[in-house]
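Structure request: Chromate efflux transporter, Massilia aerilata.
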Amino acid sequence: MPPTLPFRTALRYWLKLGFISFGGPAGQIAMMHAELVERRRWISEQRFLHALNYCMLLPGPEATQLAVYIGWLLHRTPGGIVAGVLFVLPSLIILIALSWIYLAYGHLPAIAGIMSGIKPAVVAIVLGAAWRIGSRTIRNGLLAAIAACAFVSIAVLDLPFPLIVLGAALAGFAGGRLRPRLFELGAAHAATKKSWGPALIDDDTPTPPHARFSWAGLARVALAGIGIGLAAWLLLAALYGSASALARMGWFFTKAALMSFGGAYAVLPYVVQGAVGHYGWLSAGQMIDGLALGETTPGPLIMIVAFVGFVGGWSHALFGPDALFLAGAAGAAVAGLFTFLPSFVFILAGGPLVESTRGNVRMTAPLTAISAAVVGVIASLAVFFGGQVFLAGGKPHWQAIAIGAIATVALLRYKLGTIPLILACALAGGVLSYWHV
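Returned structure:
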C-alpha cells in the first residue's frame, strides 16, 4: 500500500486553492500541476494528464472536474466531494457578495481600472498555461500537427469544440493502432521522475480498491447523482411551483451544464440566449458586467451563472420586495447547484472506468490526442482574449499591451506566481487608470 495523505492536509489545500484559483481553467490546471505534480508530488505527471484528458472530454468546468478526480483518487468519494465543493464555494460566496453590491449600489467605477490591469494578466496566464501544458504534452510532430489543426479549426474555421474533440479522438484512435509509440507518455514521465522524485500516486501505484471499475458501482453512483438532482428540482417545484423562476433555473442550468463543452466561453452564448432573451432574468448589459465581475474572482468562470441566478432572483423579487438579497442568494445557489452537480456525477461514476484504461496505449491514445488538441484550443483562446484586450475598438491599447508583455515575461521567464501577477497587474491598472495614462 502506498503511504496515505492525511485528509486534513488535503482539505487545507483544496480550501486554499478555492481562494487563489484565478486565471480561468487553463491557469487553474497549471496551478494544480505546479503544486500537486511538481512540488507536493501527490500524483505523477502521467496520472495527472490521464485524468485531465478525461475531464477535457466532458461537458462542464474541466478544472473543477480535475480537482474532484484527484480528491476522489486520494480520499474516495468524500475526498472528491470536498475537493470540488471547496474549489467552487469561495467563488460562489464572493460572487453573491459582488452581485449584491452591484445591484444595491449601482455600477462600480473602480472595477474598470482594476480590470484594465487584470485583463492583460489573464491573457498572459492563458498563454503561459498553453506553453506549460504543450511542453509536456506535445512531444512529436504528429501531436504538434493535431494542436495546430485544433487551433485553425476553432480560431479560423470557427468549428464547434465538440467536433474538434471528436476529430482529435478519432486521430488518436487511429494513431494508437498504427503508430502507438507516438502516443505514449513514458518519455515525459521519465523526465518527471528524474526531476521531482516519486509521487504518492505514481505510475506504478496499484489502483486503490475504491477506484476499481464495476458496472454496479457506475450504476449506483450515476443513479445517486440523478436522484439528488431530481429530488432538488422536485423540492423547488413543490415549494414554489414548476413554473417558478427557481424551478426553471434548475432545469435551465442543468441543460447548460450538459452543453458546456469547451468551458465557460463556449456555453455563454446559450446562457445569454436563455437567461436574457427567453426568461428575461437580466439584461444584456448586466450580463457583460457579470462577466467582468466573474473575471475578478477565483474559481471556474462558469460560476458567472451565480450572477445570473442572483440578478434573476433579485429582479423578480421572488420572496417579496423586503427580501431581495435572500431571493438573489437563492437564485445563485440554485444556479450553482444544478450547474456543478453533473460534473461530480461524471467524475465519481466514470473515474473507475478511466483508471482501468491506464497503461493501454490503444485506450489512452485518443485522450493523448485530445490533450494535444486542447493546447491548440487554449492558444486560440489567448489569441481571442488578446484581440479583445489589446485591440478593443480596432485600435491598439498600448497600456494593456505593455502590461500584458511584462506579465508574460514575468510568468514565463521569471516564474512569477499567478496570484502575485494578478495583484501586481490589478494595482498597475488601477494606478494608471487613476492618473489617466
